[in-house]
């Protein structure tokens, strides 16, 4: 199964809410997302993404047959890191293990490298999030190391991994 990435639409809110009402997904994301994740929460997120600075935030729905089944975003850093961006993503659980994450990551990285001056995209998954690490590896990212005791999630001190993908030619 393959997917497409596209800009968010406000009518994606019910699908986004359904996908994010899953503790397994929340346990692998950064804090700040409400749980349960309501349609109103989804509408607020989509509105924020649509109104964000288009040179700093590149946010997309991951879709199958135009239905949102996940989210992917690339977020430009600033100052001396202005040509570096962080990537984050998730897929609704019914679609896990079907290659959608890898496909979406490859698509969005190609888009970023082709349409912006960003030269480095990185991700910091929790070290025990094997599925996310595999998505990054299959997408060409290189593990640069382990960030020991880099986060606290659900009251537990967690290691994270640093992955990056660097644009080959400028």
Automatic annotation (TrEMBL):
Pfam families: Acetyltransf_3. SUPFAM superfamilies: Acyl-CoA N-acyltransferases (Nat). The keyword Transferase applies. Keywords: Acyltransferase, Transferase. PROSITE patterns: GNAT. GO terms for molecular function: acyltransferase activity, transferring groups other than amino-acyl groups. It comes from the Bacteria. Residues 11-163 form the N-acetyltransferase domain. InterPro entries: Acyl_CoA_acyltransferase, GNAT_dom. Its EC number is 2.3.1.-. The keyword DNA damage does not apply. This is GNAT family N-acetyltransferase. It comes from Clostridium formicaceticum. The lineage of its organism: Bacteria, Bacillati, Bacillota, Clostridia, Eubacteriales.
């Amino acid at each position: 199964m393959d997917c497409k990435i596209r800009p968010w639409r406000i009518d994606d809110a019910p699908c986004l809410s359904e996908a994010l009402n899953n503790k397994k997904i929340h346990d692998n994301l950064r804090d700040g997302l409400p749980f349960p994740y309501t349609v109103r929460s989804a509408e607020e997120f989509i509105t924020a993404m649509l109104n964000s600075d288009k040179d700093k935030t590149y946010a997309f729905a991951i879709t199958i047959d135009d239905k949102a089944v996940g989210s992917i975003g690339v977020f430009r850093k600033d100052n001396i890191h202005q040509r570096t961006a962080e990537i984050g993503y998730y897929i609704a659980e019914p679609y896990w293990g079907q290659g959608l994450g890898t496909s979406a990551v490859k698509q969005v990285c190609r888009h970023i490298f082709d349409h912006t001056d960003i030269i480095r995209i990185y991700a910091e998954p929790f070290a025990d999030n094997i599925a996310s690490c595999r998505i990054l590896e299959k997408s060409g990212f290189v593990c640069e190391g382990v960030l020991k005791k880099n986060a606290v999630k659900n009251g537990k001190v967690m290691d994270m991994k640093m992955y990056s993908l660097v644009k080959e030619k400028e």
